[in-house]
Amino acid sequence: MSLCKSMMAGCLLALAGYGHAETQVVEIEDTQAVQLWWSGGFQCANTYWYNNPPTMRGGWCSLNTGDYTYSGKKISMWRFNLSEIPEGAVISSLKVRLWGDNAYGQAGHLFKLGMKAGTGTFTIQDGNDLYGSGELFEQPGQLESMEYELATNDIIEAQDSTEWLVMSMSVGEYWGSIAYLEPTAVLLVEYDLETCEGDFDGNSSVDVDDVLAIIGAFGSYAPEYDLDGDDHITIEDVLAILSLYGACP
């Protein structure tokens, strides 16, 4: 009997240090959308902000008055709050979902998507840093939703520093290339979150809810709640969850 107890204690101690990673996906809608025109005159005025525009476009804007041509940079930017991503999450994949605008629908127009760590507000420096940066993509068709795969290094930097990500749309392959998109952008962030054994609800502790989950599944085939590896919920699983009770290490 003492040998059985000793073996069970050793098993429970081994379980107490065991953890696993769960892959999850969160969709984050932009907090704010703006267009910035600068380095030119009227309609490309210095530091001209257009907040929450009906369409997002970026490129090289110009206006020919007959006597003089004003020209300058035009960039569209979205701002995302990354607080929905849990602390300790390791980002493994990033996509952005965009739509073709119903008024223009210029399918195939080229544009660049750039990113950087931002703050709670847009700055002129954001525009200067992001203009002409990023990967090259084509605008989707009219009212068509597209998902674009992006590198994760910028969002990881933002997650670890300011928790704000700024995404830009600017010039494509040519200076005059302008894409028209709906103002709403959605980030699809896939991440791995390390959880400890017995923390079924992912709140970084083994608590009464996790114990009740084991008890509720008692006597059944429930691999999602199994702690001893036999895929069935038995007294050994109940003892294991009790030994793991408390904050995750």
What attributes characterize this protein structure?
Type 1 dockerin domain; 7-stranded antiparallel sheet; Jelly Rolls; elongated; disordered N terminus; 2 domains; 37% strand; 249 residues; 4-stranded antiparallel sheet; alpha+beta; 5 helices
Descriptive report:
The chain is an alpha+beta fold. The chain has 2 domains: 25-194, Jelly Rolls, CATH 2.60.120; 197-249, Dockerin domain (Type 1 dockerin domain, Orthogonal Bundle). It is built from 5 helices and 13 strands. The chain has helices at 2-16, 124-130, 153-160, 208-216, 235-243, and strands at residues 19-29, 32-38, 48-51, 59-64, 69-81, 90-99, 110-117, 135-138, 145-150, 164-170, 186-196, 205-206, 246-247. Strands 2, 3, 4, 5, 7, 8 and 10 form a 7-stranded antiparallel β-sheet that branches. A 4-stranded antiparallel β-sheet has the order 1-11-6-9, with no helix packed on it. It has a two-stranded antiparallel ribbon with strand order 12-13. Strand 4 and strand 5 form a beta hairpin. Helix 1 (2-16) packs across helix 5 (235-243) and helix 4 (208-216) packs antiparallel against helix 5 (235-243). It is elongated.
